[in-house]
Amino acid sequence: MNVSNSCNLALSSPGEAYIYMSFYGFLFIVGLILNILALWVFCCRMRKWTETQVYMVNLAVADSGLILLFPIVIYFTCTSCLEDLSCQVPQAIYLVNAYMSISIPMAIGVDRYVAIKFPLKAKVLRTPGRAAIVCALLWAVVTSMLAFRVIWQIQDGAFCFWRKPEMHISVVVFSLLGFFVPLGILVFCTFQIVYSLLKVQRREISEVRQIRKSVSMVLASLLVFVICFLPLHITILLNFFLGSNDRIRRVFKIFNFIAHTNCCLDAICYYFVAKEFQESTPATSLTSSWYSIAQIPWPCPFPTLAVGQ
């Protein structure tokens, strides 16, 4: 691969190109291993499907699909000048998986919110079948939105994997609908969950500690989501409204890297957020220590709240 001659469309120098390829190569290897392991445990080692498992499997599928497209991202970013369907189709598939990685955590947040705020109704509402329907609807909605975006871009002059400095308005619209709406829902559900947990009256020290651990886990989940995705989407808006320049493009690349690390972080978080995952994984001191701070169904630390499992 002649990096110095072929990477001048999206990457400013050969050194930047090598860093780019090394980073995505590392994410490809590590992320693929972690997500394949997660899918194997969820699909082959668990005897009973729960709504938590349904959401986690869909999240792992979305992350795996995104990771498998990293080589194509590298190719079209660094070497190819094509902007026809050979690039638009992989880009659309890439974006579907990327925004499903955002939409499913939102669905998990809503699921937890229902379990905490409406424990009686949750016994009916929270089932594996309903979770599967929710995931199917999310896949359909995100795919439909992406199809509309691709058609819009092609009509106005297609571009492929961020090689052009200007930001198409369809990118901004999809960013608002695909990220900021799920972010608002997730923030609302998270703080409602935290409020509900903190107002529960518990006298035992162990119960108080468990509440604190659950609150910490919920807030940590939101924090990871915000750190991974919010800077990138703010940069997208700045790029569109302020115009593109070298500084914004450099910041965009950095925040895009950070967003893609979420593929690996999701797989690591499975150990924290899924009791069934830990019980199906070979026992080690590491997983045992994680299990001690994550009594799942997350964030339901009390038997009266652990519904639908």
UniProtKB/TrEMBL annotation:
One of its GO terms (biological process) is phospholipase C-activating G protein-coupled receptor signaling pathway. Keywords: Cell membrane, G-protein coupled receptor, Glycoprotein, Membrane, Receptor, Transducer, Transmembrane, Transmembrane helix. It is a multi-pass membrane protein. One of its GO terms (molecular function) is G protein-coupled receptor activity. It is found in: Cell membrane. It comes from the Eukaryota. One of its GO terms (cellular component) is plasma membrane. The chain crosses the membrane at residues 18-42, 54-77, 92-110, 131-152, 172-198, 218-242, 254-273. This is G-protein coupled receptors family 1 profile domain-containing protein. It comes from Vombatus ursinus (Common wombat).
